[in-house]
Amino acid sequence: MVHIGCPQFVGGARRAAPLRFPEPGPDADRADAKPAQRRVGGGGPCRPRRRCGSQRRGRSSSQVGVVLSAVFLAYLGQTTLNPVIAPLSREVGLAEWQVGLTISVAAVMVVLTSQSWGRRSQSWGRKPVLVAALGICATTMALFALIAALGVGGALSGTPLFCLFVLTRGLVFGAALAAIMPTAQAYVADVTSNEEERVRGMAGVGASQGMASIAGALVGGLLSGISLMVSVDMVPVFLLAGLLVVLVALHREEGAELVAEPTHVRPSDPRVWPFLVAGFGMFTSLGLIQVVTGFLVQDRLRLDANTTGLVTGGALLAAGVGMVLAQSIIVPRSKWSPPTLLRVGSFTGAVGFALLAVNGGAALLIVAVTVIGAGVGIAMPGYTAGPTLLMSREEQGGLAGLIGATNGLTYVVSPTAGTAMYGISPILPIVAGGVILALVLVFVLVHRSFRRAPAEAAGAAGAAGGGAG
């Protein structure tokens, strides 16, 4: 029987010790570890950590592929729209800032709902959360496709069209999509036990999202060569496919595998906030140029709307390739610690921004975004896995939601800021993104939190973690 409340701090006990990222050893179940808690629905005390964790992982690891498939299909739906959103906005008569604001509204909803989704994934179970999220996403994007078709045909325009874009692609879609990554990340944290497994698992989640970026850029770009609306119409189809996969293949957890009252994790928790600062900077820099890539392609290369969608798809495809190669090859083979991943990734991304600042034609642009994608791909598992090594099982859902909220927060401001900067000068969002990544690099090089072992940080922050609920 699997119980909740099994201690998950690396090393078992809450004490400060100058260790260097140790692997779990035979002292994981020491007598001074956190007292056993009661499982959901009553019953006896939890068994020692290794047996509890191994039984839960044995029953759950076979479902990781289903959860990663849901991540892939959800983000395939989202990223299929990316290559065409800029030319589509111009076709229906919306300004650049209106597209940026629509995406920022979606990010606001991610910020507001991610922690709740992350905790619900532990208390309700993964399947109910994913079914609800994917069902809402598919329905909303079907409505968005209809609204976009009316806009292209001239039946809708101006303020009513803009408001409907914000309502569908912004408010509702953003709130529903916010559930996907916290659910997947909390699940990986639940079925892995040491640093290497955790980093590899989080890299798998990121690689699924990266592969979706590749496929979405490819599908969206190619279909836009036929018509922008063909790409838009495929978005709800992919989301519906993800919903069907979850309905058919994902098992519901047993009651004993759920966490009755997941712990709320505060952003100020000393085990967490340095990683959040690094992640915030990383995704802010990415968000500054992600939306303007389509405008950059169209203006630098002087292309029409359909060709812009095709070339932008190729550029986003290159970024996705860089990200997937980093997370599927570089990260697992390097076996770098989370701080090292953050340092190498932020440096690589800054180099990519420097290349993007040079107007050297389509080839250099694609090389630049590939390097940026690789940098983000290297850094992301360090950002997502690092703090999970310091938290108990009851905190993993709240932490995953907090990471999702931090990612969403970057997109509250960065798309609008990026498009506004682009309106002033096309070089401004590129320079700003590069400077931010350089500052992230300096931060992870000098801040003491990135030089301490997880066991030390967990022990030093024990009191703060206990008060985070």
Supply database-style keywords.
17 helices, 469 residues, globular, mainly alpha, disordered N terminus, single chain
Structure, explained:
With 469 residues, the protein is mainly alpha-helical. Helix content is 73%, strand content 0%. Helix 2 (64-91) runs antiparallel to helix 8 (228-249), helix 9 (273-290) packs antiparallel against helix 13 (362-385) and helix 12 runs antiparallel to helix 13. The radius of gyration is 22 Å and the shape is globular. The model is unreliable at 1-56 and 453-469 (pLDDT under 50).
* Category by helix and strand content: mainly alpha
Coarse morphology = globular
Q: Work out the number of β strands.
A: 0
Query: How far do the termini sit from each other?
Result: 27 Å
Poorly predicted ranges (pLDDT <50, ≥5 residues)?
A: 1-56, 453-469
Strand content: under 5%
- Biggest β-sheet, characterized? none
**What is the CA-based Rg, rounded?**
22 Å
Question: Approximately how much helix is present in the residues?
Answer: over 70%
Number of helices: 17
Chain-averaged pLDDT: 78
Q: Could you state the order of secondary-structure elements as H and E?
A: HHHHHHHHHHHHHHHHH
Could you give a quick summary of the protein structure above?
The protein has 469 residues and is mainly alpha-helical. It has helices at 49-60, 64-91, 96-123, 126-153, 158-177, 180-191, 195-224, 228-249, 273-290, 293-301, 305-334, 338-356, 362-385, 393-424, 428-446, 454-460, 462-466.
